[in-house]
Amino acid sequence: MVSITETQKIGVGLTGFGLFFLLFGMLLYFDSVLLAFGNVLFLAGLAFIIGLRRTAGFFFQRQKLRGSTFFLGGVALVLFRWPIIGMAVESYGFVLLFRSFFPVAFGFISSLVNIPYLNMGNSSSMV
């Protein structure tokens, strides 16, 4: 069993509230204040969960520098009250940062639930 420290529990809460404010900000026609608040909470939560050194190490790896630039540049654009452009740039950076994780996530989701389009490559589940 994995033990979770109090700091990591706070990080999970901050990340959850950050995602909530990001979603709520997009639902309210890209409200820049909610999006900025969500971005700050999300990044703070990430730092609380994995630590400041590992967070900096993740964002500033040589192979992920382009994705980090777009992601953090999008956060800056949202903070400077250009929410639509900022969220587009941030989303592109998010895809670049986590593109190696997407196949793992889709594989895990497809093993839990039978979703036809996610299982197309897996011939053993096709009956």
From TrEMBL:
Record localization: Golgi apparatus membrane
Keywords: Golgi apparatus, Membrane, Transmembrane, Transmembrane helix
Any one biological process term the GO annotation gives: retrograde transport, endosome to Golgi
UniProt topology in membrane: Multi-pass membrane protein
Principal location: Golgi
Transmembrane segments: 12-30, 36-53, 65-84, 96-118
InterPro entries assigned to the protein according to its UniProt record, in alphabetical order: Got1 (IPR045176), Vesicle_transpt_Got1/SFT2 (IPR007305)
A family per Pfam: Got1
GO CC terms of this entry: cytosol; endoplasmic reticulum; Golgi membrane
Family in the record: Belongs to the GOT1 family.
Known function: May be involved in fusion of ER-derived transport vesicles with the Golgi complex.
Annotated protein name in UniProt: Vesicle transport protein GOT1A
